[in-house]
Amino acid sequence: MSRLYAVGLSHRTAPVELRECVDFTRGGTVEALTALAARGVSREFVVLSTCNRAEIYAVAGPDGPDTIARFFADYHQLPLARLAEHLYVRQGADAARHLFRVAAGLDSLVVGEPQILGQVKAAYAVASDGGFTSAMTNRLFHSAFGVGKRVRRETGLSEGAVSVSYAAMALARKIFGDLRGLNVLILGAGGMAKLTGMHLRGQHVQQISIVSRTLRTAETLAAQLGAVAVPWSELGAALGAADIVVTATGATDPILTRGAIQDVMRPRRHRPLFIIDIAVPRDVEAAVGDLDQVFLYNIDDLQGIVKENLARRSGELERAEAIVEEEAQKFMAWLTSRDVIPTIVALRERFEAIRQSELARLEPKMSGLPPQARERLDEITQLLVQKLLLTPTEQLKALRDESSGAAYTDALNQLFRLGSDEAPQAPRRRSKVSPLRRE
Amino acid sequence: MHFIPLLLYGCAAAAYVAHFARRDRTTARTATGLLGTAILAHTFLIGMQTVQAGHAPLVGTTAAVSAFVWLLAISYLYVELTTDERAMGVLVTALLTVLFLIPAFDPAVSPRPAVLQSPLFTLHVLTVLFAYASFALAFVIGVTYVLLFKEIKAKHLGYFYARLPSLQVLDGMNGRVVTVGWIFLTLGIAVGGIWVMQVQSSPDPRVQEMSIQDPKILVALVSWGVYSFALVARRAIGWTGRRAAWLSALAFVIVLLNFVPVGYFLTKSHNF
User: Fold this and answer.
1) Euclidean distance between CA atoms A437 and B63, whole angstroms
2) Omega cis (within 30) before A79
3) Of A108, A144, A286, A343, which has the fewest CB atoms closer than 10 Å, so is most exposed?
4) Beta pairing class for A207-211 and A183-187
5) Among the ranges given (A189-203, A216-230, A354-368, B86-100), the one the predictor scored with the smallest mean pLDDT
6) What H or E segment, with its residue span, contains residue B107?
7) From B25, which residue of chain A is nearest by alpha-carbon distance?
């Protein structure tokens, strides 16, 4: 019988050198999907490949995991022995639970990071567009998207920035609303200044100006960043025009004093000024932060916020796991009910066949009966069969876990010899009867 | 009859608190839905009173409080639906519920004296009340601004940081709402002045009290002065942000004092 499998490796099981080698996106995900399809292991599968994980979700027979593991090795031209110890295999409910945790960001390197849900969606879209998904994977992935959304909406798992640069940008957004249209002034032209400038350029601020003691270095960095170099002598004017000031110089004494900032606040009519001091030792006097409409954050403050956010996130873990578990149960209930439906159909057909054959056997004895009595007999026997099967059908559909579903199906198959030659019509009609198959 | 809107405003306030804490879509919709229902129930009530009395229930401080609550609820709902920001709903609905206690426990509609039959009177009351509703919103926005401002300054980003819009957005809203309120207050005071001139010959003793010495009129002019200063200061000397927020909060306290205690106990001219 086909089952759901998840085979893969992630930052939890494999070192970065290995993860770099195992990347399905490099040659194109569609190509990877096509290559896997050529192995004939399964008709439904999705390849999820990010910088922290490479996983294949497939509905396959019992030899599925081995074939997929071999595919991992062959496709990346690695010896299977090197991969094997880093690969994990999850099946059935565990596979679904695993994907749900991944989609919710619970399995991420930075717990709660929001990009992974988009990556899961993209992976599914590629597989779905290529015709590599079907009823089970469709349901699985749509459930996973639901889990991701619920966790994001109902818990604080993805809240708060967890890196210094994100924390600074989030603060800027909380002060100014929108970063576009803002003027940024960077003091210093060293490595940190360059990193900050590159990050800010990605935020589409209106203009970046760079001030350095030596104009030449400012000009060099400005050329790299598409920014404007400002001579040191015009620092006051540049401060007046800026909304965000980032200081990252190597100076040993504070460059921006309370008096200097106070002087620029009046001409700028108390427009908010956000100063980010990432230099060690600090470039900005602490007293600057006491000025009205000036928001001063140094590197320690930002790290403090990151630490608080991380602590808050870990407090939300339990709630997120509970959501994952709840949705995994729902998915398994669906899967189980779907698994038992062919058995239910076969059982009904078997009973109907018995009824028909008994009626046929009794035909000579009943030939003397009036047509109404024969109709009545047909009706009664039909009702009898229906009544006999009602409770077992309900009980089977109510099974909540996969293993007992499989056990009951096996037992019924054996007890009634379902699927044997005596009930030849059963498999043909299955897909017609089950409404879930059509999804 | 008056208790149905009171109950609905109270439930809406509870729902806004729940939404502020939990921030999920369902609670958000419930809160907005409850507030909408409260407004409908309140509208029905005002309609019934109008039919019964034969005129809009705007005579007397109690009726004015009821009309103010109604206008504030509608103005807030408009702001919420256009900006999709519900954080201010907590304070607004709390204010609505507390103020609606007055009409809920004193529901009788005052008869309308002959002197108030002019349409100018109705216009005066409605414009002034709409101005007050705008100032109430500015107050709530200002308080919200200060809470967020303090959190960012203290460098402990917590409860409000995650729930409130940015400082710039709050400041912009504050400026717009104060401007709208100021325009309506100016209009309301002017209409009131014209009305007094028209009815000067009336024997009603309250009309004779209509002068700058009456506390209600005096404090109204003071609040007009404060809001005028807020507008000028914002444009001329850059009193935005925290100063503007404090100013709008302080000015509304004056408005509220003038509206309720002065309206009930001190004025000789406006005690209809």
Assistant:
1) 65
2) no
3) A286
4) parallel
5) A189-203
6) none
7) A153
Structure tokens at A432: 């017609």
Q: Which residue has the tokens 């400012």?
A: A218
**Is B152 in contact with A174 (Cβ distance < 8 A)?**
yes
- B192 shares contact with chain A (CB less than 8 Å): no
Pair of tokens at residue A37:
């399809």
The reply to whether B25 touches chain A by the CB within 8 Å rule is yes
Beta bridge partners of A246: A186, A276
A192 touches A198 (CB < 8 A): no
Cβ within 8 Å, pair B242-A308: no
Residues of A in contact with B239 (CB under 8 A): 270
Is A187:A248 a contact under the CB 8 Å cutoff?
A: yes
Maximum separation of any 2 CA atoms in chain A, in Å: 119
For residue B148, which residues of chain A lie inside 8 Å, CB to CB?
A: 174
Give me the phi and psi of A24, to 5 degrees please: -75, -15
CA distances A164 to A134, A298, A301, Å, are: 43, 10, 9
Q: How confident is the model at residue B69 (pLDDT cuts 50, 70, 90)?
A: very high
CA of A174 to nearest chain B CA: how many angstroms apart?
A: 4
Paired strand residues for A296: A275
**pLDDT band (50, 70, 90) for residue A117:** very high
Q: Which two tokens mark A3?
A: 């089952």
Contacts of A156 in chain B (CB under 8 A): 162
Give the whole-angstrom CA distance, residue B78 versus residue B87: 14
First vs last C-alpha separation in chain B: 23
CA distance A37 to chain B (A): 41
Question: Cα dist. B160→A433, B21, B166 in Å?
Answer: 55, 10, 11
Looking at the complex, report in whole angstroms how far the Cα of residue A198 sits from the nearest Cα belonging to chain B.
24
Q: Chain A to chain B, count of Cβ pairs less than 8 Å apart?
A: 59
Q: Which of B24, B158, B242 sits opposite A293 (nearest CB)?
A: B242
Residue of A nearest to B165 (CA): A174
pLDDT in tens, A266-289: 888 778 999 999 888 889 999 999
